[in-house]
Write a structure and sequence with these properties.
Blueprint (H helix, E strand, L loop, with lengths): L2 H24 L2 H28 L1
Helix pairs in contact: 1-2
Length: 57
């Protein structure tokens, strides 16, 4: 996985987790859902890069 794409995926995961936690803390369902979606996007990006790396070897 390229370092740049790996960092972007990790950034999305962390940012999404933070949004989700903040949404839960203040009771904002919209913020919680946005965080969950963003974290999921980061997870998918990371999985895609891992698959690409597996086929390169």
């Amino acid at each position: 996985m390229s370092g740049d794409k790996k960092a972007k995926a990790k950034k999305e995961q962390v940012k999404g987790a933070a949004k989700e936690a903040a949404g839960r803390t203040v009771g904002n369902e919209k913020l919680t859902a946005e965080g969950r979606a963003e974290r999921g996007k980061g997870d998918l990006r990371q999985a895609k890069e891992k698959v690409k790396d597996a086929f390169k070897k």
